[in-house]
Amino acid sequence: xxxxxxxxxxxxxxxxxxxxxxxxxxxxxxxxxxxxxxxxxxxxxxxxxxxxxxxxxxxxxxxxxxxxxxxxxxxxxxxxxxxxxxxxxxxxxxxxxxxxxxxxxxxxxxxxxxxxxxxxxxxxxxxxxxxxxxxxxxxxxxxxxxxxxxxxxxxxxxxxxxxxxxxxxxxxxxxxxxxxxxxxxxxxxxxxxxxxxxxxxxxxxxxxxxxxxxxxxxxxxxxxxxxxxxxxxxxxxxxxxxxxxxxxxxxxxxxxxxxxxxxxxxxxxxxxxxxxxxxxxxxxxxxxxxxxxxxxxxxxxxxxxxxxxxxxxxxxxxxxxxxxxxxxxxxxxxxxxxxxxxxxxxxxxxxxxxxxxxxxxxxxxxxxxxxxxxxxxxxxxxxxxxxxxxxxxxxxxxxxxxxxxxxxxxxxxxxxxxxxxxxxxxxxxxxxxxxxxxxxxxxxxxxxxxxxxxxxxxxxxxxxxxxxxxxxxxxxxxxxxxxxxxxxxxxxxxxxxxxxxx
Length: 502
Fold this sequence. Notes:
alpha+beta
């Protein structure tokens, strides 16, 4: 529903009409910029003494100091800001009046002039002409400035944090530190892509709309294709399609893209999220661990300039080698229970409850162990740690460990008390894979999130022969949280999912 304009918006709408009456198009078709603010300042610094530097800059009007015949204004763009110096005799009486009376903070303008240094030493643009590029009708929220340790700090303009996410466009416009978070996120993704390129991986794209969902334990979003009269699912994982490509002869593939899981929202969960998955023929999960720690350390060095990062109250070293700990040893250490003393779900449930842990009714043996990992171990894993050797019944796509019927070659990695990724020595025996799928059908109720439909086409692909391989998946959003020291996933998503307003 269209909202009624506020008093300030009505004032700006009135100015909009007056601009048009004066023959000024408030939203012109063209703009012409010769320099960003940073380029203009660099050109001035590099110019020989006495040589004029003429520049046309464009940006948002950030502040105005009206001295009558002279106006000082700051304009900001993607690179920074620059001061404008406007004098009535240089821009003309009419355009000087329009600037003073009809412009507002938040308007986009273009200004041409000669760069010079003011008496206070600030490099500024002496404006000879200017043009309005876009009139701002709604005032941007303005934060409060306060001096902290000798520096002027601007605090968020939003008293309601959720409103920052709902109006991310305004949040970005007034908070340069928020823009910085998303620049770091973009650099992280670019760095990962270069790392894969350097290691002979092929970037691919697999279907988002899938006739069957699989590759993870999650509830999918469903949709319907009208022409095909077919129910489809938004993918919950890339895994089964990427491994089909190994059958087809690609030996190293990766994908960075969106996954969708119809599950809870929290500080580290969003219904749609960005995932990185890769698969490498002739690797096992030990090779994947070696690659993972090098990959993350490389990205940190390239993006942040260091392998030592600060997250919350912790200083964390991402430099290899990372700690490796089996699931059994980790739970013995942190939960003080040896789950191998309880080899069925019923006895393990009693043991978990005896230590005050959570043991949901009907949970399988593997799910109970995974619950111990999440409740007792994960919060303690601040420095990078691989937890290896997961229960078989929650790892249907991983190869078993010889001589150990309970566990498989699977790991998850943890940093800052948060799980960031999951990997296997991938099962490539089509007969064993079918048995695992069928075991799951018997083990879990039909409405259980663990239950995926049996993908017959994937089994057919495996039957042509799949090379042994190691696979890996990690959440880009959580990595971005780590690299930008953010405690909520919403801070690293441009437009996080939010409940509708009541």
